[in-house]
Amino acid sequence: MNVGNFGMRSLFFAAASAAALLMAGCREDKRETIAISADPETFPTMRTVNVSTLISDSGYTRYHITAPLWLMFEEAREPHWVFPEGMYMVKFDNDMKENGTFTADTATYFSQKRLWRFDRNVRYRSVDGDRLLTQQLFWDQNKQKVYSDSFIHLERADRTIEGYGFEADQNMRDYTVHRPSGIFPTSAFRKEKGAQKEETRKEETRKEEVQEVQKEGVQKE
Description:
Helix content is 25%, strand content 49%. It is built from three helices and 13 strands, in the order ββααβββββββββββα. It has helices at residues 13-23, 28-37, 186-220; strands at 2-3, 10-12, 46-57, 60-73, 80-83, 87-92, 98-104, 106-110, 115-126, 131-140, 145-155, 159-169, 175-185. Strand 4 and strand 5 form a beta hairpin. The protein is globular, with a radius of gyration of 24 Å.
């Protein structure tokens, strides 16, 4: 897997070590100890901020990533990337056409397994416009599927499904909800949400009217 032109600031472990050697010549022993004892499980080999880059695999551009922070742990026992401050990803097919998006508060990519894990406020939109909301989602690129053991909310053109446990092909065209807790027409669900928003708006208007009356009463006194 190749990383495209970053156009951003990167900090490499090797560069950091070289800089340390130049800045403190009188403390050579201590520097060597620090370098040798750096834990590859917690010390990233690369740190990149303000990420906006294309990722390619097998000669094809697979996705575009946007994130505030990208940490790479390539020397860890299980090499992985971490996006601890959130990430937005656009997927592409072999013809460079968009075929889905992921958004999450945090994300981790296990490079040897070609496995993505998205955590907290995860949103996945398929090429057909279906939307999946959950708190944890996995995308296995080798098996070309997405899955979750968490509570899921799936909105399709004709119906909305909620439940626990989900598995689908990576385009979400063939899917299974293992323990569904509710299935209802999407139009009814959207109508209910619209009614809730309208009721909330009316309640806020009533509060504003009461506050206005109270202000007028104070001014008369």
